[in-house]
């Protein structure tokens, strides 16, 4: 389920209602979403990884702790593309 963002600076969603994703259209774009973080402070992040789609990186953090954030890369050196699920712990 895609969580609706409450701040979306130059991010777009697809025109097709059966696809649920967001993408930034400018470098440095900011998006904010309300998520529930459990006692282990884990958040599930889902991203597309591809060698040929020209994907960039995202920086994810919880609350206002940007310096403890995690960098997630969209590019990888594999000829296939994949939807990648990752559980990330934010301390």
Molecular structure report:
With 91 residues, the chain is mostly beta strands. The chain folds into 2 domains: 1-34, no CATH class; 40-91, no CATH class. The protein contains no helices and 8 strands. The protein has strands at residues 7-8, 11-12, 23-24, 31-32, 42-49, 57-60, 70-73, 82-89. The strands form 4 sheets. A two-stranded antiparallel ribbon has the order 1-4. The protein has a two-stranded antiparallel ribbon with strand order 2-3.
Please outline the helices and strands.
Layout (H helix, E strand, L loop, with lengths): L6 E2 L2 E2 L10 E2 L6 E2 L9 E8 L7 E4 L9 E4 L8 E8 L2
Question: Summed up, what is this model?
Answer:
0% of the residues lie in helices and 35% in strands.
Count of beta strands: 8
Q: Major sheet: size, sense and barrel closure?
A: 2 strands, antiparallel
Alpha-carbon distance between the termini? Answer: 25 Å
Summed up, the helix count is: 0
**Integer-rounded radius of gyration:** 14 Å
Series of secondary-structure elements, N-terminal to C-terminal: EEEEEEEE
Spans of at least 5 consecutive residues with low confidence = none
Structural class: mainly beta
The tally of domains stands at 2
The outline comes out as globular
């Amino acid at each position: 389920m895609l969580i609706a963002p409450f701040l979306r600076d130059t991010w777009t969603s697809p025109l097709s209602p059966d696809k649920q994703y967001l993408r930034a259209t400018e470098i440095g774009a900011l998006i904010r979403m309300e998520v529930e973080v459990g006692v282990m402070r884990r958040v599930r992040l889902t991203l597309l990884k591809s060698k040929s789609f020209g994907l960039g990186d995202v920086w994810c953090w919880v609350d206002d702790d940007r310096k403890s954030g995690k960098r997630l890369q969209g590019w990888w050196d594999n000829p296939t593309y994949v939807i990648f699920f990752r559980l990330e712990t934010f301390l």
